[in-house]
Amino acid sequence: MYKSEITGLGMYVPERIVTNDELSQYMDTNDQWIRERTGIEQRRWVTPGDGNSTSTMAAKASKIALERAGLTPKDIDMIVFATLSPDYYFPGSGVLLQDLLDFDNIPALDVRNQCSGFVYALATADQFIKTGMYKNILVVGSEVQSPGLDLSTRGRGISVIFGDGAGALVLSRSKGDSEILSNHLHSQGKYAKELSNLHPGCNVPPKKLVEDWDPNDFSYYPYMNGNFVFKHAVTRFPEAIMEGLNANNLTPADIDLLIPHQANLRISQFVQKKLGMKDEQIMNNIQRYGNTTAASIPIAMTEAWEQGRIKKGDLIVTSAFGSGFTWGSNIIRF
Ligand code: UT7
């Protein structure tokens, strides 16, 4: 059995900075509420016409990750693309990325696990390397969420949270001690609707939305039962992290850097406290980017690496929880 290692990291966020004060011009909210309840100070949103889409931002992040890995698109055997906000209803954004850079006709797999998308994508790529089927896989998380948000006061509980951005990593067959030690993945579909965007879908296709357009129907915007999701998140995050650590006979004290999905700063602080971890053991950048769903872990990992907070040999743990519900963790010897 082969092992896989992370050989390159990259990220891209749109230029436009959206402050909490700007949001208070669109809806009844304020900087203090958003900071206190979520930790978010600003987020990046695409601007119509700036050329940024889920796939083009992924391409920008991927180029950086490839360069840092010392590889070209020709070296990549597969794309695994996590997003909840694909460019199109279909096909997925993976094939669009395949077309944007100079890849061969390699497989492109789209992962639809929302906030846990990157944890699932990394676990999936790891399996293809472990079996020996592929040597270099590009794993991407990219989201353009802002155009789909309800910016009226009705949507304030969810719309102030989300940001746009992309992160990518190259996963390669390991030549040394670096490896993905384990992946643990879970789902609980009975709570599918608690954090969801139900339409359009097969029951309400886009054509029906147009024909029966009702300005008071908000089912085509994201919905979140905030308190309910929060309560599950603070249970599932530590559970998934401990499951991974226990499988490797490790403890929270062994973690050099925990990179949680950036859902809410309060959730990350709760997890840190529950696991008895120090500030320097946890990566938080939600303050500047908001919750970028499948992109949040690769963006945070890239920033941590750029800041020198991830070094060769470090024990890195990623964990996510979100819509589905889905959750999981990856335990990584970097
Ligand atoms: O990434 C995937 C997973 N996602 C998560 O894990 C997110 C989990 N949930 C959360 O992070 C939090 O539940 C939120 C940040 C979404 C909401 O925070 P909360 O502390 O749970 O607030 P709440 O929903 O209980 O609302 C408290 C009050 C309400 O007013 P009343 O009923 O007490 O008068 C809301 O209407 O705050 C009000 N409120 C707001 N006020 C100003 C809700 N959103 C806003 C807002 N600005 N943006």
Give an account of the 3D structure.
The chain is globular and about 55 Å long. The chain folds into 2 domains: 4-176, Thiolase/Chalcone synthase (Peroxisomal Thiolase, Chain A, domain 1); 180-333, Peroxisomal Thiolase, Chain A, domain 1. Helix content is 33%, strand content 22%. It is an alpha/beta fold and 334 residues long. The relative contact order is 0.19. A 5-stranded mixed sheet has the order 1-7-6-4-5, with helices on both faces. The chain has a 4-stranded mixed sheet with strand order 8-13-12-11, sandwiched between helices. Strands 2-3 form a two-stranded antiparallel sheet. It has helices at residues 20-26, 31-38, 54-69, 93-100, 117-130, 156-159, 206-211, 226-247, 265-274, 286-289, 296-306; strands at 4-12, 17-19, 42-44, 78-82, 108-111, 136-143, 165-173, 179-187, 195-196, 223-224, 257-260, 315-322, 326-333. The longest helix is centred in the C-terminal third of the chain and has 22 residues, at 226-247. The two termini are 18 Å apart. Oxa(dethia)-CoA binds next to helix 2, helix 6 and helix 8.
Q: What's the topology here?
A:
Blueprint: E1 4-12, E2 17-19, H1 20-26, H2 31-38, E3 42-44, H3 54-69, E4 78-82, H4 93-100, E5 108-111, H5 117-130, E6 136-143, H6 156-159, E7 165-173, E8 179-187, E9 195-196, H7 206-211, E10 223-224, H8 226-247, E11 257-260, H9 265-274, H10 286-289, H11 296-306, E12 315-322, E13 326-333
Parallel strand pairs: 4-5, 4-6, 11-12
Antiparallel strand pairs: 1-7, 2-3, 6-7, 8-13, 9-10, 12-13
Helix pairs in contact: 3-4, 8-9
